[in-house]
Amino acid sequence: MRGIEAGCGFRGIVKLHYDWRMARVIDDDGVVIDEVIWTSKRSAGIVADRLFDLQRGRLSAEARVLTERFPDAEVDSMGAMSDLDWPSLEDDELKIFEAAAPILAKRGVANAAGDVDRRLDMLVSSAAELRSSWTTNESRCVEWTGLFLSEVDLDAQRNDIPEAIAEADSIESAASILGVSAPAYSPSDIEWEALRDHAKGVVELTERLSSHEDAIRDIAQQHVPSLSALIGPLGAARLVTLAGGRERLARMPSGSLQVLGAHAAMAAHRRGAPPPKHGAILFSMPQISKSPRWVRGKIARFLAGKASIAVRCDHFGGEPWRDEQVSAIHLETEAIKAKFPKPPKRR
Amino acid sequence: MISLAKPVQLGWGVRREGRSLWTRNAVKGVSVRGERRKRDGRNEWRRWDPSRSKVAASLLKTKNKSSDLLPESGSSCLYLGASTGGTVSHIHDHVCGSGNHHEGHVVAVDISPRMMRNLVKLSEKRPGLIPVLADARKPMEISPYMREKATWLHQDLSIGDQAETFVKMTGAFLAQGGVALLSLKAASERWMEGGDLARFEHSKRIIEACEHLDLIETIDISVFEEQHVVFHCVRIP
């Protein structure tokens, strides 16, 4: 660092301007009282580090030296930009600056993977897509098999069908795995192959979905432990994703949390329909979906309030909730249910 | 080749031919997002699609001189909400030129890492284009990249309170006499009684109440982009 040693004993309002290269103390008339220039070896990587610090409102090393010399100086981080006498970038400085900016941007892109919200979003969205294709594929597989094997119970044996087809080497052997008699008509070899590949796909989708959900549970239990304990890790993860991140969910009023996932109903509400009692995620909790309809709104409101507190504990570094706290809450939902055993009278 | 419309030069690197806009391609032989290119002597011109760029749309739809909406070649520009850099590349064509021989400075800010990937790639071939991964509502995150106050600023964000942000950012970064464009997306503003028009009016009032900005024109670009208007402002000296 190189500096001008001057200004000792100066009194009055002085300003401290700085950028990544240098820092200056300037008096009211724009006279430079003191100046420190960054002179150690410059590289694009180090400039990137400096730009990063400035972006976060930290002083550069040069500016820090000047604040020690002029403790009363008014620090203006935007000052250099509007200072007409501020030295413009030399050619080599421009080169190094233009190399540093993309380095910093690339670092930011790479660091996006450190954001758990983004990772959770990928998992939750991917799991939702898998689930929707699993339901279509699985029901096609069951119907297709049922066409040939007329004796298969499509309800009781439903879960065994895809695996039985995938493992068998002909429709006849599939029939024996499922414990039914051989079909009246068999598919041709090539048709059987298509059916079996389809069933293999369904089995594989099932596995993929379950590995997705394992990963979601694992991340949610670390990222939002209290919320996971209260409403289950999968629901907690979906809430975080719907809100657009844990911070947003934590800052959300509990009334908004209550209707997350009820977009259509909220849109209808704006046009005069009654407000939704709960969103899709809260509804998936048995405390709400298994309760009589006249208490669902009350329980949803109560649970949304608790969920909102839970996610705030998780986000702002509170202690994660323990099982006894969660079971106390669930007891209270039972109390609400008990308080309203009968539907309200119609007026 | 015979072209029917005689080109009208709107600036060093931007011309208009009938209803289409072209910029002087700074990286010859490369299209940024698949737009048409054509040669004219030693220069190559790249088509600037008004249905994909709100700046191009406002150049065509303004009732004033369209060159007033453009920055000077070699100036410092700030682009908030750069996305993948489609419009930014055209601004760069004009402000910096090939190899940045105009010594311009285009700071392109976006908050999304996904968009930043493309922007960084773009900047590798275009000296003078500075990709910045930052929140466009926070002056502190942008100021380290500005060599001076910008003489041209465009804000294209899809978040609420766009007009308030615009007032704040022009206050921090726009030089006196500088041009500022705000592309306002009605769908991003909060719900309001009276729909999109009410939202445009609301934003207009905020800009008109602002002491450092002079609202020159409200440009209706709904032909090219639904639910959008562009406010053309100048910073009062």
Verbal overview:
The complex is a heterodimer of chains A (347) and B (237). In chain A, a hairpin with a 4-residue loop joins strand 3 and strand 4. Chain A is elongated. Chain A folds into 3 domains: 2-112, Nucleotidyltransferase, domain 5; 117-220, Helix Hairpins (Orthogonal Bundle), CATH 1.10.287; 224-339, Orthogonal Bundle (Serum Albumin, Chain A, Domain 1). In chain A, strands 1-4-3-2-5 form a 5-stranded mixed β-sheet, covered by helices on one side. Chain A is of the alpha+beta class. Chain A has helices spanning 44-55, 61-69, 79-82, 91-111, 116-148, 161-167, 171-178, 189-223, 225-231, 233-243, 246-251, 254-258, 263-270, 280-283, 286-289, 293-315, 323-339; strands spanning 2-3, 14-18, 22-27, 32-37, 74-76. Chain B has 6 helices and 12 strands. Chain B has helices at 54-61, 86-95, 113-125, 139-142, 162-173, 195-209; strands at 8-9, 14-17, 20-24, 37-40, 43-48, 76-80, 105-110, 129-133, 150-155, 174-185, 213-220, 228-235. In chain B, helix 2 links the parallel strand 6 and strand 7 (105-110). The model of chain B has no long low-confidence stretch (mean pLDDT 93). Chain A binds chain B through residues 19-20, 51, 54-57, 77-78, 81-82, 86, 88-89, 98, 101-102, 104-106, 108-109, 111-112, 270, and chain B through 113, 116-117, 119-120, 123-124, 127-128, 130-134, 139-141, 143-149, 172-173, 191.
